[in-house]
Amino acid sequence: MTRRIEWVHAWLLLLPAMVFLFTFTHLPAVRTIIDSFFSTARGRRKSVFVGLENYQQLIDDPTFWKVLANNLWFALGTIPTSIAIALVMALWVNEKLAGRSFIRMAYFTPTVLPLIAVANIWLFFYTPGFGLFDQIATGLFDTGQHNFLGNPDTALAAVMVVTVWKEAGFFMIFYLAALQTIPPSLLEAARVEGAGRWTIFWRVVFPLLMPTTLFVSVNAVINSFRLVDHLFILTGGGPNNASSLLLFYIYETAFRFWDTAYAATLTVVLLVMLSLLAIGQFFLFDRKVHYK
Amino acid sequence: MSTPDGKSISLSGITKSWGDPPAVDHVDLEIAAGQFTALLGPSGCGKSTTLRIIAGLEFPDSGTVTIGGEDVTALPPAKRNIAMVFQSYALFPHLSVAENITFGLRTRRVPVGERGERLKRAADLLELTPYLDRKPSQLSGGQQQRVALGRAIIAERPVCLMDEPLSNLDARLRHEMRSEIRALQQKLGFTMVYVTHDQVEAITMADQVALMNKGHVEQAASPREIYDRPATVFAARFIGTPPMNLIPIQAFGEKAGTLASQNYLIGIRPEVMHLDADGPLKATVVEAEFLGSETLVTCEAVNSRFVVSASGGTEVGRGESVGIGFKQSDMHLFDGDKGARCDGELSAVAAALCG
């Protein structure tokens, strides 16, 4: 009898979270997979089962391959850079220095600001001729105008810079928290044993930060597929899809071209990729990570 | 293991402050080569700071530190040729026991072969051989302590510093490790500076005890000397269980005579006092605590209390009037204002009180 009541209680406690998880995560995911096997309903034509036709379209779609490649470069460019910068910043503001809390706050500001708003500011930085970067460049080297966002060769890189700027401060907070859990006596012991700053970092500090690095890198990977807000302001995915990313392409397909079935197909690809990456990272890192 | 010859350490005029009052205040201390010196004192007396200054983990505001005759005041810890054991052990949690012990050898680029040999010797000495592949978190407190010791001795440095290394162990282990550390130090012959707040640890292990209080050294002497001839009121009150009685001279009533105008404190250890109706000191029993082999009798004379360690069979009741006897040679005399020992006046005072 009491076992039964406990059982009911357990389900009651789980229920609120489960309702939301099912309604907004699991149900849409399953729905998306189902939709990817159907055609898009248009006016008089009802949606019909088309099997793998959408996937065939996907394989034949050059824009899909283009944005996928873009996303790969985007991930490769932003993840290691933002993690490395975050770590360096955290090490720096973990030292005793004047205005430490001000610098910490300054580093964290990009995380607090809405990406849409700061993208507008970056748009001014990148403006050809009188934007901040061109002002500096022409002022110092007299190199003439640059259209960073309008040039297919530099558009993606320009977008990546904004992303790194946005993310590094966020990751820094995790590294800073982790650094502060390292007992000072460990570092002192290492110093007594003759270790220099470099050795202390690589043999003591960095290994002890591994759980944080794993956490941060999983987040960075997910963000590299998820964070597209600034594309709307900066480039709109252009020119000629040079700076478009997978999620941005999905948005355009679904809500600009109203091809929801094909958008669902693209979403399935994104889902599968993200799951594989997350699982892979945990298996790869887990053995090397030291947990307390 | 080969025997590194210890080096002497000398502190002169060391001052370090983070505010008022200074944590360490004009400390002068000589630590002889190959000796075991304990820095003893209550918490906040500056003993750990003094040790950290010797280690080079803190730099003094003024004064000099010399190790083996060489001025090391400005040198970083790595250049001082010392080893250190921390209160928390400071073991690297991600490294195995073997890697922890050989950490210093690796940073100093000792060849792999020699590293292995030394590790084997240290592990044998500390009985750590079965645990070399484990992580510190898989060891008991006592074993972790041995790993910390191993890391300190493997480098065969002439000086070893220990900051309350036994305070995280239970009483039985602490007792065991006490004799083990002492034996290790004597076998390897290095100079040991050992911080503790436990007088039993200091007295049983050390050749020299430096008793510290409020940032300065009250007395630096052998344990026997500190016990037999405490240099200050603080030293008299700190050493011994129960500590020495310090009785104002006025408590002796008319025997004090003209000396009663002076602020003298008469120091007598409880264990050399006995109940004696003809004794020079008259008092009232406040409390008698039976401990088996002895009875601690708390007495009061003219508003000052003191403890007499009488034999176990003594039976005295509360409120009873007693006389207390002691030998003149067991008396100590302190200046109540300065807190210093006054041997010059001792014989005159003793003659007046006991004569």
TrEMBL record, chain A:
Coiled coil residues, start to end: none
GO biological process, one term: transmembrane transport
Keyword Membrane: yes
One term under GO cellular component: plasma membrane
Subcellular location: Cell membrane
Location of the ABC transmembrane type-1 domain: 68-279
PANTHER family (alphabetical): ABC TRANSPORTER PERMEASE PROTEIN, INNER MEMBRANE ABC TRANSPORTER PERMEASE PROTEIN YCJO
Name this polypeptide is given: Sugar ABC transporter permease
From TrEMBL, chain B:
Matches recorded under SUPFAM superfamilies: MOP-like, P-loop containing nucleoside triphosphate hydrolases
One Pfam family named in its UniProt record: TOBE_2
Name listed for the protein in its UniProt record: ABC transporter ATP-binding protein
Native source organism of the sequence: Hwanghaeella grinnelliae
Alphabetized UniProt keyword annotations: ATP-binding, Cell membrane, Membrane, Nucleotide-binding, Translocase, Transport
MF terms in GO: ABC-type transporter activity; ATP binding; ATP hydrolysis activity
Superkingdom field: Bacteria
Family to which this protein belongs: Belongs to the ABC transporter superfamily.
InterPro entries from the UniProt entry: AAA+_ATPase (IPR003593), ABC_transporter-like_ATP-bd (IPR003439), ABC_transporter-like_CS (IPR017871), ABC_transpr_MalK/UgpC-like (IPR047641), Mo/tungstate-bd_C_term_dom (IPR008995), NA-bd_OB-fold (IPR012340), P-loop_NTPase (IPR027417), Transp-assoc_OB_typ2 (IPR013611)
GO cellular component assignments: ATP-binding cassette (ABC) transporter complex, substrate-binding subunit-containing
Domain ABC transporter: 9-239
